[in-house]
Amino acid sequence: MDYVKILKPCTIFARQKAMAKVRNIEWQLTFEEWWHIWEQSGKYEQRGRGAGKYCMSRIGDVGPYSVNNVVIKTIDDNNREAHAGKKQSPEIIAQRVAKITGIKHSLERRLANSIGQRNGNNIFVLRAKNKQKVGT
Predict the structure, then answer these.
(1) Nearest alpha carbon to residue 47 among 1, 96, 9, 5
(2) What are phi and psi of 48, to 5 degrees?
(3) Whether the model pTM is above 0.90
(4) pLDDT tens-digit readout, 99-117
(5) How far apart (Å, rounded) are the C-alpha atoms in residues 93 and 127?
């Protein structure tokens, strides 16, 4: 394997290993083992972030990154497995929808901001004024 081709996988390996350390997850893979897993999957060129891309995932999302405890799967499958059976608050669901759709604020918030801007008021100032009126 020539140096230029191995540089990128080495960098990606180092980043994944570093992120495991940040997440306090034990890492037991050598570069050669890690590369062999990706090579055998045939999905290395399709790895990355986002829908339809592939990642190296721990089985059941538990234990170390090791030869016997990792699989290559889509990001979608990995996320679905990670969130299975977990209840999420409406705020978290709204954040996930916003991330997917690119909408950063709820319709209510956008309307309130729009009205506040047309009247020369900030939404937070309007809320503070309304709270004062209710409290008196």
Answers:
(1) 9
(2) 145, -165
(3) no
(4) 777 666 666 776 666 665 5
(5) 24
